[in-house]
Amino acid sequence: MSFKLAFIGFGRVGQSLAGLLNRKRNELKERYDLEPTVVGVSDIQLGSVMDPEGLDLPRLLQHARREGSLRGISAPEKGLSSLDTIRRSSADLVIEVTWSNLADAEPGLSHIRTALKKGCHVVTSNKGPIALKLRELQGLADGNGVQLGFEGTVLSGTPAIRLGREALLGGEILSIEGILNGTTNYILSEMERDVSYEEALEEAKRLGYAEADPTADVEAWDPTAKIVILANALMDCDLRIGDVEREGITGLSKDDLMKAIKQDRRVRLVARAVRTRDGVRASCKPEEIPLTSLLANIHGVTNAVVFGTDVQDEVALIGPGAGPQSAGYALLTDLIAIGRSMKR
Amino acid sequence: MSFKLAFIGFGRVGQSLAGLLNRKRNELKERYDLEPTVVGVSDIQLGSVMDPEGLDLPRLLQHARREGSLRGISAPEKGLSSLDTIRRSSADLVIEVTWSNLADAEPGLSHIRTALKKGCHVVTSNKGPIALKLRELQGLADGNGVQLGFEGTVLSGTPAIRLGREALLGGEILSIEGILNGTTNYILSEMERDVSYEEALEEAKRLGYAEADPTADVEAWDPTAKIVILANALMDCDLRIGDVEREGITGLSKDDLMKAIKQDRRVRLVARAVRTRDGVRASCKPEEIPLTSLLANIHGVTNAVVFGTDVQDEVALIGPGAGPQSAGYALLTDLIAIGRSMKR
User: Fold this and answer.
1) Is A313's CB within 8 Å of B320's CB?
2) Which site among A5, A283, B186, B270 is 20 to 30 Å from A124 CA-CA?
3) Domain interval for residue B214
4) C-beta neighbour count of B195 within 10 angstroms
5) Are A161 and A186 in contact (CB under 8 A)?
6) Dihedral angle at the C-alpha atoms of A196, A201, A202, A205, nearest 10 degrees?
7) Spatial CB neighbours of A203, under 8 Å, sequence gap ≥ 6
8) Same domain, B172 and B144
9) What CATH number did the domain enclosing B180 receive?
10) According to the model, what pLDDT value does residue B231 have?
11) Are residues A329 and A309 in the same domain?
């Protein structure tokens, strides 16, 4: 089955998905009867190309990686804005992978709204629009008979949302707790080993785990957005980021962490959502947890999420929460799930 | 949507599913548009009842639990054998939850074959038929346009198979390793704390974790069957139980375990399947693993499985591997998945 795609954003994550689509071309056809074709790419830095007959994926990747520009690619339409690319392309599915913004979720929010209203499926790893507007966007998708995939917004390619939605069928999720940010977990893991916060942060930057401005991570905005997404997606609620009790890790010293260890405890930045009589309450803050608990044994950049349900003891999922291949893979799982459902 | 079910076996696991179906009646209708009706039950101890108009679920449970017999229930047809119940019932789906047998998989194998050939979907938690004959049974299901659910054969209600099949879409599973037997993991966890094998086994029996004859667990037959099921279901191979390098825990002393701890290692009964150039190689035997590894931090009756794929770092799933509610829940997830697909 032919499956037309448009990339809105073609940076690290978009290229990662494009690389997987290229590498797994035969597998996608044989296992899932899917033959994806890229009919448009629009990236604010690389430029924009559109061809309803399909663009050459290896060439796109080559130009993006080697030349840092798509301008050398010949195509019937070039230079369209991202919104015009969505409006005028023949895509069945739009891949929204522009930068994340937790203030007003733009430009991703407008991209996703425009695509859904036009009757395009959307897959995204962009946290902003999903953390801020999931209910609206899901309503738009349902109303237009299309699907919205956002597995990559939490735990990257580790399929936390699909585990909750597709695997824990018939179970009611009563609590979610997790380590949802690898950068801060790396810093805390280092600080336990007698490294200062500043040194650990520098090392995290050097390794590519932390950004130049680490605020989103160390002030817990990123994991706060993720617990909002998980709760809203899996616990049938409509939390806002401001509803979450949030505290970052900048107030912690290595002495705090080493003292905890001596008491058989570890400090972890724990994101939590719990169903109460009055709805779902969420927090994301440093907690001292017993060494024997699962989350205390999550080290470095690994992420973990633990689901409590009404049907059995807790189920935990552990895996990478970042990495370019992992982010592209999350989008691929959504894309396959949507492609499969289109054939039915 | 009406959905007719027949229970073949109505012991602890079957009753657990029946209890969940009863308790979640409204939720199943509202969330999944499923209205399950039980049209037949056949159990070698409790007896057999069949009614195409539907049997009263609370009454079935009450008779099974309080009177240890279904003979007091009035129904149009009574006393049929399990095979005749399958042949003559109007069920859309057969729930096969008789006892497990890894030698010839009977009587479960005949039950499942008969149901699939008749065009009934099947869900089962019975390891024997799936460990011995998955390929044949899957072929029968495909050939008859029905589905075979067996989530409950490994990790009980912790959805390992669905994680591999439905969540890790488009990823190729290259390795599976896990702690797939709670009884032996409990015994090993105790032995590390200076408890002898015999004492730990007795305690496991007292707590209901181990059976009177513990051979299937302590000689590793049970986790061996489970790694065969996982590998065959998720790695596209056709392993037999005899292909697995198997070793139980009866040769271990508490000194072995405590000596390992002193070297920052733990002994765990690890089941493993790895894709090699010549196919999939599997083992299930005690291994000394570093304290820092995920499996070394799985204690007591908890189970864990770690998937290695071609697309990202390892993904681990941890949760209960047993328990009556958990076993019933595994069957419920299969039942919902099949019910949803019938509506499409």
Assistant:
1) yes
2) A283
3) 162-320
4) 17
5) no
6) 160
7) A190, A195
8) no
9) 3.30.360.10
10) 98
11) no
Integer Cα distance of A22 and A40 in angstroms: 16
What's the pTM? 0.96
What the block records as the tokens of B76 is 């149009």
Assign A61 to helix, strand or coil: helix
pLDDT greater than 90 at residue A205:
yes
User: Around B103, how many Cα atoms within 13 Å sit in the side-chain half-sphere?
Assistant: 2
Active site residue A127: no
Residue A339 CA to its chain's centroid (Å): 20
Residues in CB range of B269: below 8 A, 6 or more apart: B179, B181, B184, B185, B188, B220, B223, B248, B249, B284, B285, B286, B287
Q: How far is B41 from chain A (nearest CA, A)?
A: 23
Residues A190, A146, single domain; the answer is: no
Nearest CA in chain B to A157: B312
The backbone torsions φ and ψ at residue A282, rounded to the nearest 5 degrees and listed phi first, read -130, 150
Q: Tell me the CATH number at B332.
A: 3.40.50.720
Q: CA end-to-end span of chain B, whole Å?
A: 12
Check whether residue A54 and residue A18 sit in a common domain. yes
Angle (CA) B139-B142-B146 rounded to 5° is 125
Q: Are residues A150 and A212 in the same domain?
A: no
- The reply to whether ipTM tops 0.85 is yes
Task: Compute CA distances A178 → A161, A218, A242, B306, whole Å.
Answer: 13, 16, 19, 18
In one-letter notation, the amino acid at residue A25 is: R
Angstrom distance (rounded) from CA B80 to CA B88: 9
A85 and A170 both lie in a single domain: no
Per-residue pLDDT reduced to its tens digit, B146-185: 999 999 999 999 999 999 999 999 999 999 999 999 999 9
* The pair of three-digit structure tokens given for residue B218, joined into one six-digit string: 């302590």
For A299, name the nearest residue in chain B, comparing CA atoms only: B292
Give alpha helix (H) positions in chain A: 12-23, 25-32, 57-62, 82-88, 108-117, 127-143, 160-162, 182-191, 197-206, 215-218, 221-234, 254-262, 324-343
Does residue A115 come out as left (phi exceeding 0), alpha (psi in the -120 to 50 range) or beta? Answer: alpha
User: What tens digit of pLDDT does each residue of A17-64 get?
Assistant: 999 999 999 999 999 999 999 999 999 999 999 999 999 999 999 999
Q: How many domains does chain B have?
A: 2
The answer to whether the CB of B304 falls within 8 A of the CB of B271 is no
Least Cα separation, residue B72 to chain A (angstroms)? 30
Output the pLDDT for position A325.
Answer: 85
Residues B178 and B303 sit within 8 Å (Cβ to Cβ): yes
Instruction: Say which amino acid occupies A224.
Output: T
**Beta strand B2-8 pairing with B93-96:** parallel
Q: Which of A4, A24, A133, A226 is catalytic?
A: A226
Instruction: For residues A241 and A330, state if they share a domain.
Output: no
A325 contacts in B (CB within 8 Å)? Answer: 311-312
- 3-class DSSP string for A106-165: CCHHHHHHHHHHCCCEEEECCHHHHHHHHHHHHHHHHHCCCCEECHHHCCCCCCHHHHHH
Characterise A114 by phi-psi region: left (phi > 0), alpha (psi -120 to 50), beta (else): alpha
